[in-house]
Structure formats: C-alpha cells, structure tokens
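Design request, tokens follow.
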C-alpha cells in the first residue's frame, strides 16, 4: 500500500492528528493492537511503506496489559499464545520487534509514549469498539508526531460508509457495490518482504529495565498467567491462540464443513460452522484470506465475472455454490455490518442505540409479568429451568464459545427471564464479554443487540417481547439436531 493511494484502500486510513513526521526520528513505530499478525495486514503494510519513504527501519510493538476489562486466564492465555508465535516469527526474520507483558497494573504506563519519543510517526490498528477505540481517540492528542490508524478488519473499508447501517440488507447493498474492488485490492501476504531498511534498532538499558521484554514470560505461559492479578475464575480452554491454529481451523472447515454449510450449519450435532471467530477477533487471521480460500472452492467455471449485484438480497450475488454463498454472507455481510455500525456510533453498546420501534414496544411491555426471573449468578452457573439454555451457557462458560444458532436463543431467553430490558442487556454483555473468546467485538455486540431488535424488524406482538422476534427452546429442539450437544453440555440439571 502506498502512502498516497487513491483506490478503495484509501478509505482504510484514519489520521488522528495534523502533526508532521519527525524526519530526524530513528524509526517508524507500528503498534500492533488488534491485528496481531505479520501477514495480510494493511496496517503493517502501510507502516512498511512509510518506513521505506523515510528510509527508516520499522519497530513493531505488541503488548498486553493486565487491567483491561474482563481480563482473565482465558483471554490472557489465548493472546499470549499468539504473542509467543509472533516473537518466534520475528526472531526468525531478524525483525525489530518488542513484545511486552505487563506484570502488574500500571507497570506498562508510558511505554507507548517512550517508544514514540524516537519515532518519526506511529501507525496502529483502527478498531471501533472496546478499549482500542478509546486508545485511538486519546493517543493522537498526546503525540507531537503523526498518529495514523489503519483498518484491517474486513473487506469493505470502514471509511466507505457515510452512516451506520440499520440493517444487514442495507449493508449488503454497500458490500455488493464495492466487493470486487475491495477483493481485487487485497493486503499483501507478506508486507515486510518490501521493507528496505532493516537496520537493528537498539533499545536502551534503562528502557528495558523499566519495560523488560516478554521473552522469559512467554517461555512458560501457564505459570506467567497464574502469577498475574487477573480473574482466575475464568479458566483456559482447549484452543491455541496462534495463527497456525487459525489456519488449521480454516483448512478443517473447508475440508469438512464448507460444502454442507447451507443445510447443516444450524444443527449443533453436525459441527459444520467454521469456528473461526476467536482468531478473527484477536486478529490472527484476516477476513480476506478466509474469503479468498473459500472462493477457491467455487465450481471450476466460476470467476469474478459471475458476480451479479442483486439489490441486497442474501443469495444470488456470487452465483456459485450455495454453501459458499451462505458462508460468505455470514463472514462478510453479517460480520462487517457490526463493524460499520460501531464505527459510526459511539453508543454501539448502549441501550439508547436501539431502534425507536424497539424502545416503543419495550415501553409498552415494560410491566409485563415474567414467568421466571433469574439473577446474574444463576444465569452464569446455568441454573435455570431450561435444559437447552443451560447447555448453551455451559458451553460458553467452559469452552468460550456458543454454537451460532443457540447463541440467538441464549440471548432471547435472557430477555424473557430478567426483570427489565436494561437488565437483560447488562447481563448479556457481562456474560458474553466475561466468557466468550470472540466477545468485546463488533460482531458479538451485533449478536447481543440483534436479540434486542438491532438489524431486525417488528414481528407479531406478544407478552414481554412486544414486537421483538420470539424464540423458544421447544421450537428449537424441533428444528435442529442437538442430541449429542445436550449429552455433552446438558449435564447441568435444570431447576424443574
């Protein structure tokens, strides 16, 4: 990517201040916040382009603090597994890479600014939610050199939409308009291959004494995590946070799930979903390479000329295998609509962001009697009367994921079993962000707010739900195959 690009990728760049580069700086600094990978990374590509333009080496910084919201063993371990892989990769390529794990709250304070003191400019990742959004809004104001963030989140650049899309249909029209241009201007597979100045960047002894490298910490992740002051009640899971694990997951899905996706994805017992969301969330794999790999399995006579924009309909755009069309609608449209919504809405996680019709129907039904009301702790420990809901929560608590279809039911029932809608939203955010490896993500906020009416329409009116879409465990049992699922996760006994 060139620094003066005029194509679709120019909509990926967000200049956070008006400062000029310090041409006497020692290096260009890339702060790896969310896209924690060296491949298919627009931000890293842009940082390398600036380093070449200024004839400077590139310093890449990846860190992890202990005081982020919901910090626990599960997330820390997953992130650190990826950091260890990045450190080993950087060593093998003789890259200037600084990896830091904060040992206690406050220890990493000032680290970024200390690195920026000798930098010509700072490049980082654009991301519209959670602490990264707050970082990006504040860091540029504190630096006297440029702070530029680059969107490597999905195919359709965040800057190309002018306002928040209120439906998947609306965003799908945007996607269809720009897909080919976005897809044919991909991130480079290995952006650092183009890096010209590979001089070593020494870090001072005083700096390393204050901010020691993570090398020793990453050599024994389990022990390191156990020694930190974070939430140890949320256990680690049997998933590896590395990029290699993500690529293996993608390969397994293409081999065993993709060509059955349309028909079987909603059936938990079939195990036909991709399961890639944790690695997408932590930036270990790019959406582009997923889409590219999947499109490589279209029929032999398919090519990009087969694509036909169809006004936002959810099928008939790619005009290839229906399983591939169905999967791509999920990974592009339904994933990215949440990113674009949050990009335009600072209140993406607030009750007030719900559509007016939702707030109106909730107001009309706010005093409806609830047949069951549970506390947050009862929800958390799968102690409801509903075996299927308990199973979904148990999967979330123990494995950090919920099957895609059951996640919708899981959310709908919390609305039904809490005293009011704001409490339901509070509980859903807490449960999801505490346990889900793909939580704290625009896509997961979409899932939570979808059950409350975002990106949906009004349905038949009923008690408690008003005009919100209604789901029941009984109908779910009839629709989907989940006997094996209940055998595995349904050991938590219901109250009735």
């Amino acid at each position: 990517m060139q620094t003066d690009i005029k194509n679709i990728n120019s909509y990926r760049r967000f200049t956070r201040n008006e400062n000029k580069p310090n041409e006497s700086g020692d290096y260009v600094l890339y702060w790896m916040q969310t896209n924690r990978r060296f491949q298919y990374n627009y931000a890293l590509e842009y940082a390398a382009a600036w380093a070449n333009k200024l004839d400077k080496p590139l310093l890449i910084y990846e860190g992890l603090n202990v005081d982020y919201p919901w910090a626990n063993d599960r997330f820390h371990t997953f992130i650190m597994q990826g950091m260890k892989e990045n450190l080993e990769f950087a060593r093998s390529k003789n890259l200037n890479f600084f990896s830091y794990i904060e040992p206690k709250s406050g220890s990493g304070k000032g680290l970024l600014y200390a690195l920026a003191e000798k930098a010509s400019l700072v490049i980082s990742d654009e991301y519209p939610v959670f602490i990264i959004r707050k970082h990006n809004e504040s860091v540029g104001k504190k630096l006297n050199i440029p702070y530029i963030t680059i969107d490597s989140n999905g195919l359709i650049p965040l800057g190309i939409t002018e306002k928040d899309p209120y439906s998947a249909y609306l965003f799908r029209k945007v996607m269809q308009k720009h897909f080919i241009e976005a897809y044919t201007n991909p991130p480079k597979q290995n952006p650092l291959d183009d890096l010209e100045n590979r001089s070593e960047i020494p870090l001072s002894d005083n700096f390393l004494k204050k901010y020691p490298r993570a090398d020793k910490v990453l050599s024994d992740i389990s022990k390191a995590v156990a020694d930190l002051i974070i939430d140890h009640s949320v256990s680690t899971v049997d998933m590896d946070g590395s990029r290699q694990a993500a690529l293996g997951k993608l390969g397994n899905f293409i081999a065993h799930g993709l060509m059955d996706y349309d028909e079987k994805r909603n059936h938990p017992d079939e195990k036909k979903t991709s399961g890639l969301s944790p690695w997408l969330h932590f930036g270990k794999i790019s959406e582009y390479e997923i889409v590219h790999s999947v499109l490589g399995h279209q029929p032999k006579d398919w090519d990009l000329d087969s694509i036909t924009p169809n006004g936002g309909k959810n099928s008939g755009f790619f005009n290839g295998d229906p399983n591939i069309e169905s999967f791509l609608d999920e990974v592009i449209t339904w994933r990215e609509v949440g990113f674009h919504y949050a990009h335009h809405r600072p209140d993406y996680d607030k009750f007030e962001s719900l559509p007016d019709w939702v707030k109106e129907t909730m107001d009309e039904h706010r005093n409806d009697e609830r047949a069951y009301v549970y506390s947050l702790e009862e929800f958390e420990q799968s102690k409801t009367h509903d075996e299927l809901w308990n199973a979904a929560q148990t999967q979330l608590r123990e494995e950090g994921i919920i099957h895609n279809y059951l996640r919708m039911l899981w959310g709908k029932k919390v609305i039904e079993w809490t005293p009011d809608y704001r409490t339901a939203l509070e509980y859903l955010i807490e449960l999801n962000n505490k346990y889900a490896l793909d939580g704290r993500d625009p896509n997961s906020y979409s899932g939570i707010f979808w059950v409350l009416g975002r990106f949906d329409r009004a349905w038949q009116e009923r008690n408690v739900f008003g005009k919100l879409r209604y789901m029941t465990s009984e109908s779910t049992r009839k629709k989907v195959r989940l006997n094996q699922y209940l055998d595995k996760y349904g050991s938590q006994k219901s109250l009735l």
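Comment from the thread starter after seeing the answer: thanks! Residues 1-5 have pLDDT under 50 and may be disordered.
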